[in-house]
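Consider one such protein record:
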Amino acid sequence: MTIDPDGCTFWYINEYYATQPTQLSQDDWQTRIGSFKFPNCTANSAGVQGTVIDSATSNPISGATVTAGSSSTTTDGSGQYTLSSLAPGTYTVSASAQGYVTGSASVTVSSGSTTVQNFSLVASAGATTSLSVVPASGTYGGTTTLSATLTAAGTGVSGKTISFTVSGTPKGSAFTNGSGVATISGVSLSGIDAGSYPAGVAASFAGDGSYVSSSGTNTLTVNKASQTITFGSLPNKTASDPPFTVNATASSGLPVSFAAAGQCTVSGNTVTITAAGSCTISASQAGDSNYNAALDVPQTFSIAATSGGGASLDGTTVPPASQIVDNTGAVWTIGSGQAILRNGVQAAGGLGSKILWQSAVIYVLGVDDNWWQWTGSGWIVYGPTQPGATFEPSPDGTTVPPATQITDNTGAIWTIGSGSAILRNGVQAAYGLGSQILWKNNVIYVFGVDSNWWQWTGSGWANVGPAHP
């Protein structure tokens, strides 16, 4: 009698007669082999485990089938397998996977232990494939369609998975149809600037047991996007209205610029009215590397003449008047630093101490003692004599005091103000200070606080010494 390696099965041999012999010639022994187990006996068990990998890449192969005798299992995602509850003994263990040559090994397993057997499978030779990628195009910030055709020996291969990337970013996969074509629609181009990318779209086929892997690339073209401007209508204005701002937006988010035509100007987004009539403000956006230029959006409004009696009376001056309204409705004033203001904005850099409305023309007495004429867009010199003047210069040798004022040959009025300030048309003349003004030989002199006489040059003072001119 012997015991099986499982520790529970007992084997025995005995001899017997089929029939009882009655003489020696009938002596015919029979042999019987039998076995038995005790019901409560637990058999010894053995096992085998290991990992199945790709021989070329050493990557684990999942889903491979491993068989030992009548037992089999499949590998997990890490390529590992375990066969347990094997009877001790020697087995031919095989590992197989789609696209690979089956591997096998003779493995002896012992009771109560697990034997390690790894497999390195060689990829089986498949049909050569070619993957042709279609060029892709779309608009900046929009979408595109990706397509590629998988062929073997010039014939489309169906039912295979094709993976796509755009500028190196995975964009999903699709199965090939009966013609070998795989397509993905609505692929986002977000984050990709407008331009042409020679290998911007790529596709790949991983291969399988029947077909070899392949890949391909082609050009991705991202076109500039269109944009629109939103610019609302503008209300009508009056010629004396102060400057105001306008606002517009572009669908691209890029800044909008403005241009003016008519009786107005624009700086940045600030509009200044120059006269009665009309004004057209056009909003524009020139585009950039990702956006085409937008169509300009113009808005026109009417400008009424200033209400309250129209133009000022001929001969009005500032000072003493606080403002002059010309025949276009524009309002003229003198601002800080003797700036000549037209509707609250300095007119072409004008500076002066006096504004005159004479014969429907604006004149300014400039800081150079010349009168300047407004042309509608700038200034031209008129000369030192006040336009339309009917004044007479003070007699030669006049002094202040005892006189209260002196009129020079330009019509300017000279007086002494608070703190001995020398005033020309009510404004201190080049910071002049003195106790006496003299009009002599068509020249203004001042006896200064330093006890010297000073001569007016037209824009400043020149020291002529302590002697009386």
